[in-house]
Design a protein that fits this description.
This protein has about 170 residues and is of the alpha+beta class. The chain is about 30% helix and about 40% strand. It has one domain. A hairpin with a 3-residue loop joins strand 10 and strand 11. The radius of gyration is 20 Å and the shape is globular. The N and C termini lie far apart (about 75 Å).
């Protein structure tokens, strides 16, 4: 009886310590930069250029170097690039120096990452967003992507096609 109680107590305490992917959805972005919010709500953003995303969607790229966003613990952030569709943030790219503590921190927050052999990167996938961790020669890149905004892009494309079809 005592052994069973001790085992149940141990399992319960381990489950409390382990984080899961719901934390990724709860945070919904990097620091105060949230996916799905309007770009005007982000401190220190600077417009860089307009682009065509995935060869069909008009989007814009912004960058920020606001001091509130330029450190992850002791790791310096080199660059933060933000992509928007109709002013709404759908992708955040964060480039940092190479430091193993970044991956350790992410796994502590979100649990064990899944490795993709095809893209040679690690990723976490929540209900509304995904986070990709990819190491390059001298830096790490974290990419947060919003599923709902990307879906909105495809819905808008479908509406344009329907409008053209109705003209016939």
């Amino acid at each position: 009886m005592k052994l069973t109680l001790a085992f149940i107590t141990m399992l319960f305490s381990i489950s409390l310590l382990a984080q899961d992917i719901s934390e990724l959805d709860r945070r919904n972005g990097f620091k105060e930069i949230r996916l799905g919010v309007h770009i005007d709500s982000i401190k220190g953003t600077e417009f860089k250029k307009d682009i065509i995303e995935r060869k069909e969607f008009p989007a814009s790229i912004y960058e920020t170097a606001h001091p509130d966003y330029m450190k992850i613990g002791e790791v310096a952030v080199k660059k933060i690039s933000i992509k928007t569709y109709k002013g709404l943030i759908y992708e955040i790219d964060v480039a940092t120096g190479k430091d193993p503590n970044v991956m350790r921190g992410l796994e502590k927050l979100y649990g064990k990452a899944t490795y993709s052999i095809r893209t040679e990167s690690y990723y976490w996938k929540g209900e509304n967003l995904s986070l990709v961790y990819k190491g390059h020669r001298k830096e790490l890149k974290l990419t947060y992507r919003s599923g709902p905004i990307i879906s909105l892009m495809y819905e808008d494309k479908g509406k344009k096609v329907e409008a053209v079809a109705d003209d016939f």
